[in-house]
Amino acid sequence: MAASAADLVGAVGRYLADPATDAEGRRQLVRRCCTFTDGRASVRLARWVLNTLAETAPAEARS
Predict the structure, then answer these.
(1) Using CA atoms, how far apart are residues 12 and 50, in angstroms rounded to an integer?
(2) d(CA 11, CA 50)
(3) 2, 31, 40, 56: which could form a disulfide with 8 (CB 3.0–4.6 Å)?
(4) pLDDT band at residue 58 using 50, 70 and 90 as cut-offs
(5) What pLDDT was estimated at residue 62?
(6) Cα angle: 21, vertex 38, 26; to 5 degrees
(7) Burial letters 24-52, b for 16+ CB under 10 A, else e
(8) Long-range contacts of 14-17 (CB under 8 A, 24+ apart)
(9) Within 13 Å and on the Cβ side, how many CA atoms surround 25?
(10) Cβ(21)–Cβ(14) under 8 Å?
């Protein structure tokens, strides 16, 4: 965890220079925090938005 803006910049630089840095830690974080890891979050979000709009739109807008 970065303690300052400078620490954050340094950490980002290290990750960009070596994407394998702390790969196992990131995998554990994803397993613990992410329900889906299939790369389709935007599809699910778009589907939810469209369904919500369809359910809440006035009747005249649905026809």
Answers:
(1) 36
(2) 38
(3) 2
(4) confident
(5) 64
(6) 20
(7) eeeeeeeeeeeeeeeeeeeeeeeeeeeee
(8) none
(9) 6
(10) yes
